[in-house]
């Protein structure tokens, strides 16, 4: 407003052309008013309480049932060799797939947190909060093989998956595998199966949640299994259900 501010020099034309939209954003507007204040042309900025809009999260992507099975077929084929590293790999993938646990939660699992007799695992999540997650029979079978054939070969440790040296040999230190190691396993088998990426442990977590919701599990139950503090967090996975409904309507009414 020229009546309030008086004539205000806006800077060199070149500088304005370099950032043509910077003045119409909340951040750019606040910066401009700070300059006006510094030059004595304005008082308090009217944009003090204006906040920029929150960035929209990119749509999360799960593995389809066919993609998940393709990855597991590759892992199962390699595990038939009996090599301890291959058995370890499929165990890590199975825990990710059938518990929905976060990467760090899987890496930090303790042996005594498993109860195969009751088919249950106690997961230590964010904020040191524990949650109980049921284990499907398919996962129990994989874990039983790992505990019988592979775990005795590794150094004594409270961790279910002890740390490994570069190249795959046990370190002998009281430390769990790294999340980087777990990510490498996920990428290796995803690419070997020819499934489109990106491949990362959290994609398995997303797959777990969407599979439960598609199977009719209540969103509150899924929240507890995922270790979310709010149903609102779990609800971000519901977009796939809406896509399913849209596809169903289009198939019914071509």
UniProtKB/TrEMBL annotation:
Residue span(s) of domain Tyr recombinase: 58-250
Top-rank taxon: Bacteria
A molecular function (GO) term: DNA binding
Keyword set includes Glycoprotein: no
Cited Pfam families: Phage_integrase
UniProt keyword annotations, A-Z: DNA recombination, DNA-binding
InterPro entries per UniProt: DNA_brk_join_enz, Integrase-like_cat_sf, Integrase_catalytic, Tyrosine_recombinase_XerCD
Single GO BP term: DNA integration
Similarity comment: family membership: Belongs to the 'phage' integrase family.
Record-given protein name: Integrase/recombinase XerD
């Amino acid at each position: 407003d020229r009546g309030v501010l008086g004539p205000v020099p806006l800077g060199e034309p070149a500088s304005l052309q370099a950032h043509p939209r910077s003045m119409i954003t909340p951040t750019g507007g606040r910066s401009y008013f700070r300059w006006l204040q510094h030059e004595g042309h304005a008082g308090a900025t009217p944009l003090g309480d204006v906040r920029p809009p929150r960035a929209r999260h990119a749509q999360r992507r799960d593995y389809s049932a066919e993609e998940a099975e393709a990855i597991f077929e590759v892992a199962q084929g390699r595990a038939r060799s009996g090599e301890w590293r291959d058995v370890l790999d499929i165990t890590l993938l199975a825990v990710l797939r059938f518990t929905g646990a976060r990467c760090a939660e899987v890496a930090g699992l303790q042996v005594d947190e498993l109860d195969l007799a009751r088919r249950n695992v106690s997961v230590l999540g964010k904020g040191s909060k524990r949650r109980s997650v049921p284990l499907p029979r398919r996962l129990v079978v994989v874990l039983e093989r790992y505990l019988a054939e592979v775990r005795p070969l590794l150094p004594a440790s409270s961790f279910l998956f002890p740390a490994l040296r570069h190249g795959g040999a046990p370190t002998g230190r009281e430390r769990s595998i790294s999340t980087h190691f777990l990510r490498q396993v996920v990428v290796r088998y995803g690419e070997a199966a020819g499934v489109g990426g990106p491949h990362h442990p959290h994609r398995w977590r997303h797959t777990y949640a969407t599979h439960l919701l598609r199977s009719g599990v209540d969103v509150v139950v899924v929240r507890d299994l995922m270790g979310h503090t709010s149903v609102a967090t779990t609800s971000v996975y519901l977009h796939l259900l809406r896509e399913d409904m849209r596809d169903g309507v289009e198939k019914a009414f071509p």
